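Course assignment 3, question 2. Fill in each field.
Student: A.L.
Task: Predict the tertiary structure for the chain below.
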Amino acid sequence: MDRTQGQPEPVEQPVAAPAPPTTAPAPPATAAAAPAPAAAGSAVARVVTLTAGDFTLTVNPVDGSEIEPRRPGTGGSAPAKRDAAGRAARDAAARPPVLPGPAAPAPPLLAREEERERLVRLLGRGRSVRLTGPAGSGRSSLLDAVAADCTRLAPDGVVRLSGYGHQQAGELLHALYAAVYEASHERPERTQLLSRVRDIGAIVLLDDLEMGGAALDELLSATPECAYLLAATPDTRAPSDGSHLEEMFLGGLGGADCVELLEAGIGRALTEEETAWAGDLRFASEGLPLRFVQAAALLRQRDERNLSSAGDEDEEPGVFEERPRDAAVVPLPTLAEGAAPAELLASRVSESARAALRIACALGGELPHHAHLPALVGDTHADAAVAELLGCGLLTPVGTRYRLAAGVARQLEEAAYGDTAAEEARTAARHYAWWTGHASVTPDRVAAEADAVLAALAGADVVAAVLLARTAAPALAASRHWEAWERVLRSGAEAARKAGEVAEQAYFHHELGVLALCEGRLDRARAELEASIGLKGALADKRGTVAGRRALALVADREKAGVEVSPPLRLEPPALAPASVPTAGTAPAAEAVTTVLPVAEAVTAPVAPVASVVPVIGSSEAPTTLTEVFEEAFPLNPKPAPPVVPAAGPMRAPRRQPLRRPVLLAAAGALTVVALGTVMALAMSGSDDPGTPAGGDGPAASSTPTPGASVPGVPGTSGNDPAPDPGTPAPDASDPGSPESTLTPDPNQPPRPPSRKPVTPPPSQKPSPDGPKPPTPDPSPTPPAPTPTPTQPDPTPTATATPASPTATS
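Answer field:
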C-alpha cells in the first residue's frame, strides 16, 4: 500500500536504457512507492527512510522530507565493516565504467618503476605521500599500479576516492565511511563520524586533490590509522608545515620513452621523419605522456587516411559524392597541431563523437554516462563514441566518470564547439529530469552522475532547471551525497524564484531547512523553515505548513537543549571597596561630591551601594536658566574644602575626575566674559544697597575681610576671580554717570554692564522733579545676609560690617 496516498503500489516497468554494470543494486524494502506525475509515465515516486544522527529522515519526493527524532532501538551503534567480497565490489564500483565494444589497450606505464617502488615502500610503513605532477603527467596511471601492489598491506584494503570538486574534508570523510562500513541507510553526525573513521586502517588513494592547508590537516588528523597517497597538480594549495607529508614530484618522460610510447600507440616503428617530429614535440610539451597519447592518435588517423586513399586511386568519385577525395599522402601534423591537437583530432572522429564533444563543452567538460548518449545525440550507436574519444586522448578518467582532458575544452571552444552550449544544456537538463525521477534509477546511480546533473542545472533555462532540481534533489538526499543535494536545492530555489513558481520555491526552502537541521546549523534551519512556512501559508498548503512547523519545533527543542547544556555567560558586578569610617569634620554623604573639589571629598565620603556615573553638580535638578548655570559654575561664596582624612582601610577609593555635562560647560564658558564684567562693575560701584553712603562721610565696611568671612556683593577670592584695579577710584554718588545719581542713564555715558541683582529703589524714595537727593547715611548699617547657594547650606559664618576709618575708604 502507498504510505502517502493509501493506494496499491503500481507495477514498475523496465526502462529502455540498460543499467551500468558497476552500479549498486536497488535499496531494500525500506522505500515505498507512490504514484508520480503523469509526465513521468511508468515512473514512480520513491520514499526512502534514513538515519541522520539523532533524527530519522523520510525523503518524500511528493510532499517534502519529514524529520523526527530517532526512533528508539534504531541507529546509534557502529555498523560492521565490509568483508573481502564487499571490498572487491567496492573497488570495482570506484573505477570508471566499462565501455561497450572491444577493450582498447591501455598505454604502458614507462619510466615510473623507481617512483612506484618508493611509493609502495612508504605506504607500507604507514607514511602519507603527496604526489605532485602537471595535468597529463600520468598520475592516475601510477595510482592504478600502486593500488595493485598495496592490496594486502592494510586491514581494510585499498580505498580509491576522488577529490575533484571537494574543498572541505567533511564530504571526503563521509565517502571514506561509506566505502569501509556497511551503512547503506545511515549518515552519522559529525561526532559519530569522527569516532568511526578513527578506527579505519586502510591505504587511501585520493586522486585529483584540490584542497590543502587546514582542510587537509583535518582529513589527516581524523584518520590517524590511514596512509594517504594524494595526487595533486602544482597549482593546488600546499599542505601546512605540520602535516608531515612526503613530497614526490612527477615529471615528463625522456626522449627514448616518448618514442617508445608513440610506437606502442600506433603499433609500428617510427620513421626518421616521425622520430624527428617526436623529438620536437617532446621539447614543446616537456615530455608529458598525454601529449604523446594524442600524438599517437594523430599518426593512426594519418595512416588510416593514407591507406584508404591509396585503395581508391583507380576509382572515380561518384556524381552524388559529397565528401571530396583526400590527398594522396596526408602529411605529418605541424608542431603547433601536435601541441594543441584537439581540433584536428575532433575533425577526424565520427559524427556521434563530435556531438558528444559538444555536449561535454556545454556541461563544463563533464561527459555524461555512455548510456545517456543515444538519447542525447539521437544515435543508437552513440555509446561507442566514448571509447573512440578515450583512445584519442581527448578524455581522461575522473573517479567513476570521464571528463575532457586538460586543455581540450579550451581548444574545442576556440573551434566553435561551444556555440550551441545553451541548447545542449537545455536538452541535457530535460533528459536528466526524466531519468532522475524514474523509479528504476537507484540513488547511487544519480550520485555517480551528480557533476553532470549540476552542470546541466547551471546551463539550463529556469523552467528546465526547476524541473531537474525537483526530481534530482530527493535522489541525491537518499544517496547520502548531501553536498550535491545542497547545491541542487540552492540552484532550484533560485530558478523557482526567477520563474515565479511559489510552490516549488517553498519546497526547496523546506528541504534546505531540513538539511541544515540534520547538520546542526540551527540558525540556517530556522531561517529556511520560516521562509517555507510563509510561502506555504500563502498557498493555503495545510499539510506542508504542518510539516514545516514540526521541523521548526525540532529546531526550537535543539536550541533549548543547547542553552541548557551551555548557559550564557553572566557577568557579576564588580566588588566595591569597603567604605571608610566617617570622622569628625567629614562632610555628610549628601555633600560627598562638590563642585569645587569633588575628588578630595569623594575620598572621605561613605561609598554608596551604587556609584553614580555622572557626578551631580549643584542641585539634583538640571538648571533651566542661564543665571542658574552661572551660579552653579561660578559660586559667589566658595566654601573651603574640609580637611582630607585618609581612609582607614588598606583599600583606597578610586579617584574620580568630575564629569560635567557638555551643556553646562558650554554655558559656563559662554558666560565667563559676562562674569568678568560683573566683577569689575561690582568692584567699581561698591555696594548696590541704597543705604550705603557713596562717599567717605559715613561708616563703611572694612576692605580687609576677616579670616573665614566673605563680603556680600564682592566676588570671592578663590583664585579664579580677577583682582580689582587699585588705581580706579570708587564711583561718587554725585557723578552724573553713577546709577545712584539718577534712574535715567545718560546717553553720553557708556552703558553699565547688567548686574546679577536688579537695583530697585525703595518705595519711600521717589524721584523728585528737581533731581535725585543723596540718601541719608545710617549710623549703624547692617549689610544683608549672604545668599546661600541653591545646592547646599553655607557653613561659613556671616560677615559683620565695621566702621571704616576715613583713610580706609578708596
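Instructor remarks: DSSP finds 27 helices and 13 strands in the chain. The first strand starts at residue 32 and ends at 35.
Grade: pending
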